[in-house]
Amino acid sequence: MEIWINPACSKCRSAVSMLDEAGAEYTVRRYLEDPPTAAELEAVLERLGLEPWDITRTAEPVAKELGLKSWGRRPEDRPKWIDALAGHPKLIQRPIITADDGTAVVARDPETVRSVL
User: Which sequence positions are flagged as catalytic?
Assistant: First the structure.
């Protein structure tokens, strides 16, 4: 299992604590220091069953600078969104847990963290 975190995020710290309390084996990826590639984002989105705009933090200042709220959300728009996430990892919703069984979740609440344990 791997968890993508921003250590400054309280939801990330909470998810890590829950994993620790459960005795789960996992790897931490500080995705701001080690940003995912476009291919890694594609793979995670496939596992999540989501589109890139579904995991984008549109309230971030860089999102406003890029004008993300006005971007299209059609299949042909996916590459542009993925490039934005890869180029600006702060835009990626967190934490994301990729489980060993091939599933993945955006673990913003305790119930979702429990679902991968």
Answer: 9
Nearest residue to 36 via CA among 87, 78, 70, 71? 87
- Which residues, in sequence order, are CB contacts of 69 under 8 Å at separation 6+? 58, 63
Residues paired with 104 in a beta bridge: 98
CB 102 within 8 A of CB 47: yes
The H-or-E segment that residue 115 falls in is: helix 110-115
Output the pLDDT for position 55: 98
What is the residue type of 73?
R
Q: How far is the first Cα of the chain from the last one, in angstroms, to the nearest whole number?
A: 10
Distance of CA 106 to the CA centre of its chain: 6
With cut-offs at 50, 70 and 90, classify the pLDDT of residue 16.
very high
